[in-house]
Amino acid sequence: MAGDRAASIDPDALSWYEATARQRVLALTDPGSFREFLPPTERRMSPHLPLFDLPRAFDDGIVVGRARLDGEPVLIAAQEGRFMGGAFGEVHGGKLVGLLRAALALKPKAVLILFDTGGVRLQEANAGETAIAEAMRAIVDVRVAGIPVIGLIGGRAGCYGGGGLIAGTCSRLAVSEGGRISVSGPEVIETNKGAEEFDSRDRALVWRTMGGKHRRLIGGADAFCADTVSAFRKAARDLVGRAPAFDLDTLEAEQARLEARIDRFGDCRDATDVWARLGVNDPESVPAMDTDAFAETVARSPEADHDAR
Amino acid sequence: MTLAEILASLFPQGHAVAVREGLVTGTGPFGDGPMHVVGIDGDTPLGVDGALVLSRAVLNAVRTGDRAPILVAVDSDSQRMSRRDELLGLNECLAHLAKALLLADRSGHPTIGLIYGHTAAGAFIATALATRVLAALPGANPSVMDLPSVARVTKLPLDTLEEMAKSTPVFAPGLDNMVAAGAVHVVLDPDRPLGSQIRAVIDTIEAEDVRDRLGAERGGRLVAHTVAAAVADQARLG
Amino acid sequence: MESLTFRHTTKKPLPGSVPSAITGVVASGNLEILLERVLPPDACEVAIETPIAGYGDVWEAVVADFVARAQPGGLRISINDGGARPDTVSLRLLQGARLMEA
Questions:
Q1: Does B149 touch chain A (CB under 8 A)?
Q2: What is the pTM of this model?
Q3: In contact, A210 and A161? CB cutoff 8 Å
Q4: CA angle at residue B115 from B160 to B19, to 5 degrees?
Q5: InterPro entries from the entry (chain C) (predicted)?
């Protein structure tokens, strides 16, 4: 489908945060290699949104298909964060689950998931929630088959709710400054626990607590990217080559890693306290660091790099 | 049923299952071997600390190599909503617990969820929904979000939502709707011994993830299975 | 939701041979447009789903203007509207036609 042609898209110039899901897919993968499954012409739209008087999207907010990355076959899914906050509805979730199941038969070099989601779509909550559980089981099956599942996170909706749990199931994650990974969103915490627990209007607090830099420093993500498609492409290629196995040893190591994190940082109130304890000289300067300076800081963080995921 | 009643019915000869700060761990005798039990009791929210206590218990069970069943008994709140939990990586800790259960399943331990009270959102996904087969007792109340919260987010009046919930199982909270979606495989009979019912559930465990198929058969999730199958078909045909 | 359909006869087919294209995103103040070359070369149909009722006249005028300018013969155009302003709709329609011509 046209609009599927990337000739006019320069991956070096294209902001991941600003790009649509389709633009990300086309600019990330080898030119001309993307073939979409259930494309918009098939009109697999939500059967539920009309009940709520809400507009539908021809792809239900997720683009899935196959492509090549450096000539190697990959399966790829990309959520559209601007449609319903990229949330998991019935069709949306079914497309991701179907793609992951297909990976077992196709044995691609990797499955790439371009997260951009607020979590479950409340208008189809039970279907979305169950699809998230199905996707997590399918990811484990794919990883056990030796196929890396790589999550890329840098969209405007972030990666929240069940999306955060799916991300935590992936082999590796790449994140940009704009990529927030969390379960409860700022507004959800504030609504339930009050502004003194979490002031959702304090955007600096949101970025510090849930943003890409904090996740990278504590080992919640394996690569930190500048906000361009080419940076994510480079990270994806690198991460595919060093995915951890899914077995008891890996999960024992993750158990130890997460227990150690809570022992070490469990009494910290703010991310800057965590960063100070990680040995960052000037924690207040982290949010303003450019990618190169941040890479040097990450290199000195003992928690950042590991195979325990 | 309360957790104590459930454990008494499952393990009439006694058990070594303890509840500490709402977290359930232990074992009981089941057939010729043990059954491992992990879970959450008393509508307790699941945070980073609790998730790692439960995942430790699951990984210890896998390490024994006994391939004994693991029961995941759940009466929980949602994930614990706090700044500290998110700062410390709640998504990693909840995913880790789910992965531990999925690894156990793959390592020969039948994993059975049993919801008997409330459960919601991230806590539900990380525990009961990460088992191979999910059973429920009448009165269980699983949800993604309660209707007043849905009303706030969708900006629809609560009474409108309550009316819609009667005819639209896909968004409404409650056990019946989760059964219809295929998330809950079976509802147990509290008036019969649970041991034999759980045994029957284990004996009918299927290798595939059947939840989307169940959702289509039961009418609560009509298109997910077809969509997933169509994607897989188009992927195969290239 | 309101459904609107407008059918036009064009003087010529839209050039090019691209079978289908999509542009835009369904979001507040935005819309997505799916274009398919499936109609006779002198026919164009535009079908709209919009959550904002009562603007049929505006849609009719925007579509008629687009058809007159682009002569999109052969196209079935399907729109999922998120509440876009008329100038946004015009822009996206022309973008979509350009994708089909390429």
A1: yes
A2: 0.97
A3: no
A4: 125
A5: Mal_deCO2ase/Cit_lyase_ACP, Malonate_deCO2ase_dsu
Write out residues 29-88 of A within 8 Å (CB-CB) of B: 35, 37-38, 44, 47-48, 51-52, 64, 66, 75
Whether C and A touch, i.e. at least 3 CB pairs below 8 A, reads as yes
Q: Do A83 and C27 touch (CB under 8 A)?
A: yes
Of A48, A126, A262, the CB nearest to B178: A126
Mean pLDDT on A79-98? 98
In which domain, by residue range, is A120 found? 21-299
Give per-residue pLDDT as tens, B105-146.
999 999 999 999 999 999 999 999 999 999 999 999 998 888
> Do A55 and C36 make contact, defined as CB atoms within 8 angstroms?
no
Question: Structural domains in chain C?
Answer: 2-101 (3.30.230)
User: Which residue numbers in chain C have pLDDT < 70?
Assistant: none
Residue A8 is predicted with a pLDDT of: 57
Q: Would you say domain B3-137+188-205 falls under CATH 3.90.226.10?
A: yes
Sign of CA dihedral A48, B150, B75, B111: positive
The pLDDT tens digits of the residues spanning B48-67 come to 999 999 999 999 999 999 99
Do residues A215 and A176 make contact, with C-beta atoms less than 8 angstroms apart?
no
CA distances from A217 to A65, A157, A208, A257, A309 (A): 32, 21, 11, 13, 15
> Cβ separation of A254 and B96 shorter than 8 Å?
yes
Is the residue at A15 inside a domain? no
Confidence class for position A11, pLDDT limits 50, 70, 90: confident
DSSP B100-135: HHHHHHHTT--EEEEE-SEEEHHHHHHTGGGSSEEE
Can you read off the two tokens belonging to residue A230?
A: 């080419």
pLDDT of residue B166: 86
* Percent of chain B surpassing pLDDT 90: 88
Cα B48 from chain centroid (whole Å) = 18
Task: Indicate whether A200 pLDDT > 50.
Answer: yes
Q: What is the ipTM of this complex?
A: 0.97
Q: Can you tell me the distance from the alpha carbon of B24 to that of A63, in angstroms, rounded to the nearest whole number? A: 41
Query: Is the Cβ–Cβ distance between A60 and A45 less than 8 Å?
Result: yes
pLDDT of res. A3 = 56
Structural domain includes residue A197 = yes
Burial of A12 (0-12, 13-18, 19+ CB in 10 A): exposed
At residue A31, the 3 state secondary structure works out as coil
Instruction: Give the residue from chain B lying closest to A139, CA to CA.
Output: B99
Q: Is residue A112 in a domain?
A: yes
CA A132/CA B183 separation, integer angstroms: 11
Show residues of chain C in contact with A58, CB under 8 Å. Answer: 22, 32, 34, 78, 80
Q: Does A22 sit within 8 Å of C22, measured CB to CB?
A: yes
Task: Tell the residue number behind the tokens 């196709």, with chain if given.
Answer: A106
CB A219 within 8 A of CB A259: no
Check which CATH number belongs to the domain holding A267 and give it. Answer: 3.90.226.10
